[in-house]
Amino acid sequence: MAVATSSAKTTKRTKRLIFLGVMSIAAFLWIAPMIWMYSLSLSSNEVLKTVTTSLIPIDFTIENYFDVFQVGLTPRWFMNSVIVTLVTTVLTLILSAMAGYAFARIPFTGKNLVFAFVLAGLMVPKEAMFIPLFLMFAEVDMHNTYTALILPRAAAPLGVFIMTQFFKAIPHEIEEAAQIDGASRWTIFWRIMLPMSGPALTALAIFTFILTWNDYLWPLVSATQKEMFTITTGLASLQGNFAQATELGSLMARGVVASLPLLVLFFIFQRYLMRGISVSSGGK
Amino acid sequence: MSNQALNSTSQVAAGSQSRILGWNKTSRDTIQAYLFLVPFLIIYVVFVIYPVIQAAYMSLFKWDLLAPHLNKFIGLDNYVTMLGGSGLTWNISHLFIWRLLGLASVALVIWAATRGSMKKFSAIWLSVALVAIFGVLLGLNAQAEGGRLNDATFWTSFGNTLKFVILSTPAIVGLGLLLAILLNEASRIASFFRTLYFAPYVFSVAVVTLIWGFLLNPQRGILAAFLSIFGIEPISWLTDPQLAMPAIVLTTLWWTMGFNMVLFLAGLQDIDPTLYEAATIDGAGTWSKFRHITIPSLQRTMLLVIILQIIASFQIFGQVYIMTRGGPGGTTRVLIQYIYESGFRDFQLGYASAMSLFLFIVMFIVSFIQFKVTPQED
Q1: Which of A218, A270, B304, B316 has the fewest CB neighbours in a 10 Å radius?
Q2: Domain extent for B47
Q3: Looking at the partner chain, which of B30, B54, B202 has a beta carbon nearest the beta carbon of A266?
Q4: How many CA atoms lie within 13 A of B207 on its CB side?
Q5: Which of A23, A106, A127 shows the shortest C-beta gap to B336?
Q6: Could you give the CA distance from residue A43 to residue A53 in angstroms, rounded to a whole number?
Q7: Shortest Cα–Cα distance, A114 to chain B (Å)
Q8: Are residues B177 and B322 in the same domain?
Q9: Measuring CA to CA, how many Å separate B2 from each of B7, B9, B174?
C-alpha cells in the first residue's frame, strides 16, 4: 500500500519533470530570436562579417550602442517616439476617463444613442482609413508635425468602454457623500473618481503606450521627412539587404534600443497589462 | 367662475413649476454630461468617424493627389474597376475548396442557431448571405477565353490577405489556447513561462521584422543554422513564392501569439473551480474534464479570440511591407499595401478610398457575424 502510493507519487513527479523540461526547451526556443538580437548587438561588427549564428556574444563589445547615439538619426527618432507616445497616452487617458465617467455616472438625454455611436467606432479598421486622414492633414499643411502623429490616435472607443465599465463598478455611496458636501461633478471626477481608478488607468495607459509606440502605418504615411520618423518607421527604413549588411551589430543595437522602453514597462507592469487585455476583451 | 379659473391656473402653474424643476435637474445633468463628453467626441468624430464618410465620398471620384484640378465625380466607376471584369463566367469548380469551407461556415451558423445562441431570423438572414457569397459570387471567374478582370492586382491582394487570415488565425489561436491551458496554474514557474511567451508582443513591427528578416536569411540566419543540425538545406523563405506567406505567418505567430494566450488565460480563470472539484469527486479524468468543462466554458472566449484575430489579420501590412515589399512576384502583397501603393505611388486617392471602404465592409460583416453568433450575456 505504502509502496503503491510512493510509486504513484514518483510517476506524478516524473510527469511534472517531463512537463517542465519540455516547456523549458520550448520557451527557450521561443525567446531564442530575442536573445539572438541581443547577442548580435553586443558582438563586434568585424566578427559578424563571418559568424552570425551565435546566441552568446562573440568578441563582446558595447561599441554598437555608442554607435546608435553617434551615427544617424536614431536618437532623434527615439525622442520623437517618446514625445508622441507620452502625449497620446496622456490624452487618451484623460479623454477616455472623462467620457467614461459621463457614461457611467451621469443620467442624461440621449445616453444610449451616444454610447452606441462610440462603440460603433470599434468596428472602424483604423489601419484602413489613412487616405482621408492623409488628405485632411495635407489640406491644413500639417504633415510632419507631432500634432498629426498624435491627434488621430487620441480618440480610443475601447478606452471609453474600459473606463465606463470601471466607473460603473465603483459604489455610489462615495459619490453621494461628496455630492451632499456640495462638491461639483468636476471636483468629484478629478478628486475622487480619478484617484480611485489607478488600476484601470494603468492598464489602459500601458496598452495605449504599446500600441502607439509600435504604430507603423500612420507615421509612415504622415511623417515623411527623416527628422520626423518615429523609432518604428525609422528602424523599418534601415532594414535593407541582410545578406550584405556590414553594420549588423549596430543595426541590431538599434533594434534593442527601439524595444527597450517597452520591455522595461512590460516587466514592471505586466500584471496590469495582462489584466488590461482581459478587461478590454470582456465586453467586445 | 373666476375663482375656479384662478384655481386651475395655479394648479397648472404648480404642475409646470415642478416639471420645470425636474427638467432643470435633467437638463443640468445633460449639459454636464456633454461637457465631459465633448473633448472625446470632437476628436472621435473628426479623426475616426469623419474619415469613413470622407472615404465613401472620395470613392465616388477620380481623385488624383498630384492633379487635384482634374478631380471629377465618376459615380461607382471605382467600384466597377475594383470588382468588375469583362467576359466573366460562372463555374462550380472555381475556388472549389475555399467555397466549400465557406459553405461549412454556413453550417456553423445554423448549428449556432439550433444551440439557441442566435435568433432564428438573423440565422436565416446570415445563412442566405453566406450562401450567396460562397455558393454563387465566388464561382465567378475570368478564366474563360476573353475573360478579364479590370484590376487583377486587387483580387490577388485581397486573395493574399484572405490567405494570411486563413493560415494565421488557426495557428495563432490554436497555439495560444494550448499554451494557456498548459500554463494555467498559480505557480511561479508557470508565471515565468507566461512572461516569456508573451514578451514578443511588446515589440514593434520593425523590431520583429529586424529579427525575423535576418533570422530567415538562408546564408546568415540562425534558422538555417538550426535546421542544418537536422540535415536540412538552407531555405530561401522570403524569396520563394510558395514559402514567403507561410514565413510571414510564422513571424506573426511568434509576435502576437502571447496576446491570444492572455485572452484565453482570462477565460480559463473565469471557470468556476468547483466544477472541476465536483468532476474529480465523480472520478472524471483529465481529458474528460477538459472535454466536458474546459471546452464548453471557453466557448465565448474562443469566439471572441477568433474574431479579434481575424480582424487583426485582415489589417496585416507592416510585416509584409518591411520584409518582402509584397514580393516575390506579388505573392505576399496584401490589401492594405495595395491601398497604400494606389494612394501614394499611383496617387489615385479615390480608388484607394474605394478599396479602404471595401475592406471596412468586409470587416464589418465579420464583426456583425461575431455579434450575432456570440451568445449574449444576461
Answers
A1: A270
A2: 2-58
A3: B202
A4: 31
A5: A127
A6: 11
A7: 9
A8: yes
A9: 8, 10, 84
Measure A98 CA to nearest chain B CA, in Å.
5
Chain A positions in Cβ-Cβ contact with residue B305 (cut-off 8 Å): 281
Q: How far apart are CA B65 and CA B130, in angstroms?
A: 37
Contact check, Cβ <8 Å, A123/B352: no
For B41-171, strand residue ranges (E) read: 61-62, 72-73, 85-86, 89-90, 140-141, 148-149
Q: What is the CATH number of the domain that holds B365?
A: 1.10.3720.10
Residue B8: per-residue pLDDT: 47
Among B58, B78, B104, identify where a domain stops. B58
| Residue B293 belongs to a domain | yes
**A7 burial via Cβ count (<10 Å: 0-12, 13-18, 19+):** exposed
Least Cα distance to B37 among A200, A127, A110 occurs for A110
ipTM above 0.90, yes or no: no
Q: Are residues B369 and B243 in the same domain?
A: yes
The pTM of the full predicted model, rounded to 2 decimals, is 0.87
CB contact under 8 A, B304 and A281: yes
Which residue in B37, B49, B349 is closest to A131 by CB distance? B349
Residue type, B128: V
The residue of chain B with its CA nearest to that of A154 is B43
CATH superfamily of A72-238: MetI-like (1.10.3720.10)
pLDDT of residue B376: 54
pLDDT tens string A62-99: 888 888 888 788 899 999 999 999 999 999 999 999 99
Interface test with B, best of A15, A28, A129 (most B CBs within 10 A): A129
Question: What does the mean pLDDT of chain A come to?
Answer: 87
B347 touches chain A (CB under 8 A): no
Final residue belonging to a domain, choices B40, B58, B76: B58
CA distance A229 to chain B (A): 13
Three-state DSSP state, A20: helix
Contact flag B317-A216 (C-beta cutoff 8 Å): yes
A110 vs B contacts (CB less than 8 Å): 30
| Domain annotation covers residue B233 | yes
- Determine the pLDDT at residue B22: 53
Cis amide bond preceding B68, omega within 30: no
For residue A78, give the C-alpha cell. Answer: 527615439
State whether A123 and B367 contact (CB < 8 Å): yes
Would you say residue B72 lies in a domain? no
Q: What are the tens digits of pLDDT across the range A133-144?
A: 999 999 999 999
Q: Give the pLDDT score at A280.
A: 61
Q: What is the grid cell recorded at B363?
A: 470587416
C-alpha cell at A26: 520550448
Which residue is listed with cell 470622407? B54
Cell 501614394 appears where? B344
Which cell is B130 given?
453566406
Look up residue B37 and give its three cell numbers.
Answer: 463628453
Domain extents for chain A?
2-63, 72-238
In sequence order, what are the beta bridge partners of A60? A43
